[in-house]
TrEMBL record:
DUF3417 domain sequence ranges: 13-140
Cofactor(s), by name: pyridoxal 5'-phosphate
InterPro entries attached to this UniProt entry: Agluc_phsphrylas, Glyco_trans_35, Glycogen/Maltodextrin_Phosph, Glycogen_phosphorylase_DUF3417, Pyridoxal_P_attach_site
EC number: 2.4.1.1
Known function: Phosphorylase is an important allosteric enzyme in carbohydrate metabolism. Enzymes from different sources differ in their regulatory mechanisms and in their natural substrates. However, all known phosphorylases share catalytic and structural properties.
PROSITE patterns, A to Z: PHOSPHORYLASE (PS00102)
NCBIfam families for this protein: more_P_ylases
GO molecular function, one term: pyridoxal phosphate binding
Family assignment from sequence similarity: Belongs to the glycogen phosphorylase family.
Annotated protein name in UniProt: glycogen phosphorylase
Organism: Aerosakkonema funiforme FACHB-1375
GO biological process per UniProt: carbohydrate metabolic process
Length: 875
């Protein structure tokens, strides 16, 4: 039955409780212990059954209970404290303000003369926008599927904490990510809950007259409309598009924002067009003018096409000029270390859906498709969203140092003339949001001993030295409390799931007896993608059984959680295998699989286990973040040297499995690494955990816990990560945007014209001769002088930079890890007209050294010399 009219009924609160509404509609409550506590206090059962959704709670809680609370002085006082905290949060002097605004003011005062007022304008109108297909913010906003989403959510939270002028853009899915059910055989099935937007912390964006703001995106033969919802994440707004509205005629169009990563390849293109193109239009409809665009993964890369179109149509720029503006202000973060993880679309489909952009740009079919391809000349090659994003960005990064290395070799084909180590893809290591992932119990402890600043204090802050002064007994007691809470939670969750499945009372009763709150607990929670090898630990069943139970005084237990992608049959097999293992070996007390891994389960596990296990096939885990969350709570990581762990102090803060080898024989790799895992458990982990003193404190273990907190907390968090994005990417991108757009886009026009000139004339240049002083025998410390004669043809010395490039020569005759040194222009030879450059090299170590010479483009508005892909090497 369709309604003839609909009404948006909002909760009615007693006037005294009115501030609750404001608190409920800002996700800041999610990382503020006091406010979260306040909502729990409203009604404990409702808090749990609503999946921690304060908005839904306010709409469903009984009026009697509300009246009661309105007269409860204790409650009112707590509410007022929470309101005050939110108020204070909005009015703090933030990192951004200190770093950027005050810094700029000082700079301005230093250079008063000449410059117009553009500097102060810059600072007031700066806006960074962060695009992501998923956001993992809170349990009651299920629009994420895993690590990528949680990272995006944490990015927004820290951007808010740091005061960045950032907004998020994403899609609002009608169906939340699935709930996981296991049948009696341990096979996963999925249930997709329907999101009720009116009972979530969402605001519908409307015009002043109350009608909803609507944007449109062109698809073949029709327009699709979307409305815009906002979630307030502290001071950061997140705008989410929703196509499930009457203005769209077909069910297909309603379904574009139905499910995260839902449907086939056509649906995927529809979704990514809505995110990228619709997202840019939404920002315009809202009156926002971003100055830096951050693409979190390639899904949103179509946004660049839309930006170019707008600049061409509305600002009268050429395609080259518009591209220069877009490129100067775009940032791309890649998250996958494997080609299979990248979105690839068939060329015909790209032309079918987006060909009109190419037409508008004046590009031929192959020129347009080349935006998403390496220049191999293969006309059947698919269109890669990552390549589009890279070509449209000036700052490109992977998400851990090792992942940076892997990404450089994955995409090196885009810079065929550049040595691998110079491929302009850098790394910003991921992090996690401290107040979201550290348990309230531990937060209390850290606040008391370190002071509340610990959540964002950097590695050099002396505050971290105070970790050692936390009494062992206290740290251990707090940690044991987290473990006990986890055990209680697991028992309840299991019983609940068994009841849902209609299990027998005996089975349900048994759920109350699983796990032992005093036993060494190993946690493993992650997506069940096969490369994560969730069953590596049970490869030798007899051996793991001995480890778990042979010694009654040194027992070990496992808590496992995770979802497989609905189409990932091998992933589902792994879940079944674990459940079979539990049953066949009679292990149901010491090995538990908790269904329905989500933020809440994750938070309890990373606080209540003792050891965090991670066994991906290196280097396939780009970063991984759950281990960081664990470390922040004082857990010890037991992990293959992959992702973030490879750059952590893995000896002091846990144990490395293996030594960072790469294997060709996967079966052999499994065997070696499983053995390494067993040995570590038998010889190091279990003994250290059970080595107690007379007060039953494992001193050695606690000391390692302190190292984990002290060394990993300050670095592997999103406060550090977002600061890095700010200082390394956003500030510069935004500055470049202002540079490019000033004086009616004069610099953009100049840069585009100059680029055209370079493309035309570059290859006419000739390196005529290179003269080197001295012979081929040189001693350490000796300097050699180099003089080069170069025919610049139609270019001028201002257009380029000539570099000497030196380094050790490897067995195959290539210079490795070469170091460039700029050569000086000495003017032209009056006779021949060739340009003369000189430079010198001092050899500081011995061995076979090679030297070469190369020429790179140079222009004041060029953000990187590699931008054009032009580089001329001496032959
Ligand atoms: C942190 C987190 C992840 C990411 O963990 P990985 O270690 O990257 O696998 C996934 N899902 C949830 C719910 C999380 O909280």
């Amino acid at each position: 039955m369709q309604p003839i009219r609909t009404f948006n009924v909002t909760p009615s609160l007693p006037p005294r409780l009115e501030p609750l509404r404001k608190l409920a509609y800002n996700l800041h409550w999610d990382w503020n212990v006091e406010t979260k506590d306040l909502f729990r206090r409203l009604d404990r059962d409702l808090w749990e059954s609503s999946r921690h959704n304060p908005v839904l709670m306010l709409g469903t809680i009984s009026q009697t209970r509300l009246q009661e609370l309105a007269e409860d002085e204790g409650f009112i006082a707590q509410m007022e404290r929470a309101v005050q905290q939110l108020e204070d949060y909005h009015h703090r002097l933030t990192w951004y303000h200190k770093k950027r605004k005050l810094g700029q003011q000082v700079k301005q005062m230093g250079s008063m003369e000449g410059d117009d007022s553009s500097q102060s304008k810059i600072q007031n109108s700066e806006c960074y926008v962060y695009f992501s297909m998923e956001f993992g913010l809170a349990d009651c906003v299920p629009i994420y599927s895993g690590g990528l989403g949680v990272l995006a959510g944490d990015h927004l939270k820290s951007a808010s904490d740091l005061g960045l002028p950032l907004v998020g853009v994403g899609l609002l899915y009608q169906e939340g990510y699935f709930s996981q059910f296991l049948n009696a055989d341990g096979w996963q099935s999925e249930h997709y809950p329907i999101n009720d937007f009116y009972n979530m912390p969402l605001h519908l964006e409307c015009h002043p007259d109350g009608t909803e703001i609507r944007i449109e995106v062109d698809y073949p033969g029709r327009k699709v409309y979307a409305r815009i919802w906002r979630i307030q994440v502290g001071t950061v707004p997140l705008y989410l598009l929703d196509t499930n509205i009457d203005a769209n005629a077909s069910q297909y169009d309603h379904d574009i924002t139905d499910r995260l990563y839902g449907g086939d390849i056509d649906m995927r293109i529809h979704q990514e067009m809505m995110l990228g193109i619709g997202g840019v239009r939404a920002l315009r409809a809202l009156g926002l003018k971003p100055t830096a665009y951050h693409m979190n993964e390639g899904h949103s890369a179509f946004l660049s096409l839309e930006r170019i179109r707008v600049l061409m149509q509305e600002e009268g720029l050429s395609y080259a000029q518009a591209t220069a503006v877009v490129k100067s202000s775009s940032i791309f973060t890649t998250h996958t270390p494997v080609p299979a993880g990248i979105d690839l679309f068939p060329p015909d489909k790209v032309m079918y859906y987006l060909g009109y952009y190419g037409d508008g740009f004046g590009l031929k079919r192959e020129e347009f498709l080349a935006l998403g391809r390496e220049e191999t000349g293969d006309l059947t090659a698919p269109f890669s969203m990552a390549i589009l994003a890279i070509k449209m960005a000036t700052f490109v990064n992977g998400v851990a140092q090792l992942h940076g290395v892997v990404s450089r070799s994955m995409f090196k084909g885009l810079w065929p003339d550049l040595p691998l180590e110079e491929v302009p893809i850098t790394a910003i290591t991921n992090g996690v949001h401290a107040r979201s992932c550290v348990s309230p119990v531990m937060q209390g402890l850290y606040d008391r001993y370190l002071g509340p600043r610990w959540e964002r204090a950097g590695s050099t802050d002396p505050l971290w030295e105070r970790v050692t002064s936390i009494p062992d007994e206290e740290l251990w007691r707090y940690h044991e409390r987290c473990r006990a809470e986890l055990v209680v939670f697991v028992r309840e969750r299991l019983a609940q799931k068994l009841r849902d499945r209609g299990a027998s009372p005996a089975e349900i009763g048994h759920a109350g007896e699983v796990l032992d709150p005093g036993v060494l607990t190993i946690g493993f929670a992650r997506r069940f993608a096969t490369y994560k090898r969730a069953t590596l630990w049970m490869r030798d069943r007899e051996r793991i059984k001995r480890i778990l139970q042979a010694n009654k005084k040194r027992k070990v237990q496992f808590i496992i959680a995770g979802k497989a992608h609905p189409h990932d049959i091998p992933g589902k097999e792994l879940i079944r295998e674990i459940n079979h293992f539990i049953r066949e070996e009679g292990m149901s007390r010491s090995v538990v699989f908790i269904p329905d891994y989500d933020l809440h389960v994750g938070r309890l596990m990373v606080a209540g286990c003792d050891v965090w296990l991670n066994t991906p096939r290196r280097p396939r885990e780009a970063s991984g973040t759950s281990g960081m969350k664990a470390s922040m709570n004082g857990l010890l990581n037991l992990s293959v040297l992959d992702g973030w762990w490879d750059e952590a102090d893995y000896v002091r803060t846990g144990w490395p499995i293996g030594h960072g080898e790469d294997y060709d024989d996967l079966n052999y790799q499994d065997l070696v690494e499983a053995n390494s895992l067993y040995e570590l458990l038998e010889q190091e982990v279990v003994p250290l955990f059970y080595e107690r003193d007379t007060e039953d404190i494992p001193r050695g273990w606690v000391s390692k816990m302190k190292d984990a907190i002290r060394l990993n907390c300050p670095f592997f968090n999103t406060a550090r990560m977002v600061r890095e994005y700010g200082t390394r990417a956003y500030f510069a991108a935004s500055d470049r945007y202002f540079t490019m757009t000033r004086e009616g886009y004069r610099p953009a026009r100049e840069l585009a014209d100059w680029k055209n000139k370079l493309f035309d004339r570059w290859y006419k240049m000739k390196i005529e001769s290179i003269d080197v002083s001295g012979g081929s025998q040189i001693q350490v410390g000796q300097t050699i002088n180099v003089k080069a004669r170069i025919d610049l043809a139609d270019l001028s010395a201002d257009d380029l930079q000539v570099q000497l490039y030196t380094g050790l020569v490897n067995a195959s005759g290539d210079i490795v890890n070469g170091v460039p040194a700029v050569m000086e222009y000495q003017g032209q030879d009056p006779q021949s007209g060739t340009s003369i450059y000189t430079g010198n090299i001092t050899y500081t170590y011995s061995g076979l050294q090679g030297m070469s010479l190369r020429i790179l483009p140079k222009h004041e508005y060029l953000s990187s010399p590699y931008d054009l892909g032009l580089i001329l090497w001496a032959q």
